[in-house]
Amino acid sequence: MHIPLTSSANAGPDPIRIAICGGGIGGLSLAYMLQKNSNIDVQVYEATSHFEEVGAGLTVWPRTLRILRMVGLKDGYSDLATFPPPEASNLAYDFRKSDQPEEGHVYFERQVPGGLTSFHRAHLLDLFAKKVPTKNCHFKKRLQCYEQTEDHVTLYFADGTQATCDALIGCDGVHSAVRKRVLKEKLLYEEDDSRRKELTECLNPIWSHTNAWRSLIPMSVLKAVAPDHPATKRPQIYCGTRQHAVVYPIAKHTLINFVGCNREPNEEGTYDALYALPPSKEDVDKMYADWEPDLQILLKCITTITRWPIHYLKPLPSWTEGRVTLLGDAAHAMAPHCAAGAGMAIEDSFLLSTLLRHSMVSKVTLPSVLRAYDKVRRGRSEHVMEASEYCGFIYHFVGKNEDELDLLGPEIARHTEWIMSFDPVQDVEVAIGHMMNYIFDDCRSVHKT
Ligand SMILES: Cc1cc2nc3c(=O)[nH]c(=O)nc-3n(C[C@H](O)[C@H](O)[C@H](O)COP(=O)(O)OP(=O)(O)OC[C@H]3O[C@@H](n4cnc5c(N)ncnc54)[C@H](O)[C@@H]3O)c2cc1C
């Protein structure tokens, strides 16, 4: 099925003005899916001076690939992605027991119909960005705050400028300014103490005491020392106590993406104190000093490394307030252990953009659209947030002895079952149903008064 990105929806004298705050995968995928509709005026406000190429490799599951195909990016994605090898087309990852100096072994091979595809974040960002007109992208626009009335939202940027829109979508990542404002708006009207506590706890992300160490290894460098290294062909997860490493080819097999994840031994340590120190390759060498030879080969090929603190959010009691909602990490930042954050952001964009193009949508009905999006997507992402956290514990063998490793495979499969369930396309139908109900309820209450 191919979803046309244009429609005759929202017919009216002026286009509906949608402001997107943040030009990461969430913001740009949404901008791409909305920009072809002449009845929607979409503007992207990004804090940095260009769409940033940070982040190295990412993977997505077949459910995301299906969406990219439906919105007309089949060829564009195929040109940039690395697919599983033909002899293992359903392969997701090999999970290895690796925390010993002797050669490890695969304790579980995760298969998913269609397998896992991988890419450089910058390449996917570029695929979306190229299709969004430059006149609609505004750089060095760091949102500080917004104010909303019944019929519009005013955005206030750090450079002193302002913009106005009919709806604001906060795609501004884990430290989202939009999220803080949405939750503070809710706090203004919330009198129940336990609900106030819940809202307050969601304002800021929580550091998981986990770091991700990311590096890119040229495939030619790895092949020169180990031509048949498993990571040249198949995604690998090297597992062990308190840490693991995820390794897979990207950029059409020209690079190997390395992500080492460790849990800080001192759980009392603060994020600020730790991150005052510059990241060093020696730290990573020390972390994996006694691990298996295949991993040592990879470490020898690494020259530079970056360190990423892993933050997550508690599930938010709501993403939406009036004409403002959240999308991507701003709404559901999660641990990366299910390789799901970017894919979930694209699913958010798919559902929200389909609703916004619907013929029942007008400037007046926008709050109902955002409520319907929130109702369907929030529950979905909560499930994946929980699964992502849990998978981290499984990869680190928490609560398991060495002779119990064969129990881990079924647990991983159980916590990643969502990959094949809750169909994002069927969810659009469900969300349209909610949206119609909300719109009719609003109409009824207006007629009553
Ligand atoms: C180590 C690691 C590995 C991962 N692996 C995977 C994986 O394999 N698969 C997967 O699906 N996901 C993965 N993820 C998660 C994925 O990277 C994120 O979920 C995804 O990139 C989030 O996209 P986003 O657009 O919501 O946020 P971001 O990418 O954070 O983009 C937010 C944008 O908003 C801008 N911004 C911030 N504040 C403001 C402001 N106030 N005003 C204006 N602009 C602002 C920022 O500059 C940025 O451009 C991984 C994450 C990590 C850390």
Care to give the gist of this entry?
Helix content is 37%, strand content 22%.
* CATH architectural group of the largest domain: 3-Layer(bba) Sandwich
Q: Hetero groups bound?
A: flavin-adenine dinucleotide
Mean pLDDT: 92
Radius of gyration: 22 Å
CATH superfamily heading of the largest domain: FAD/NAD(P)-binding domain
Cα-to-Cα separation, first versus last residue: 44 Å
Judged by helices, strands and strand pairing, the structural class is alpha/beta
Fraction of residues in helix: 25-40%
Number of domains: 2
What is the top-level CATH class of the largest domain? Answer: Alpha Beta
Q: How is the largest sheet built, in terms of strand order?
A: 5-4-13-14-15-12-16
Characterize the overall form. globular
Uncertain regions spanning at least 5 consecutive residues: none
In the CATH hierarchy, the third-tier topology of the largest domain is known as FAD/NAD(P)-binding domain
Number of strands: 17
Strand content: 15-25%
Largest sheet: 7 strands, mixed
Number of helices: 15
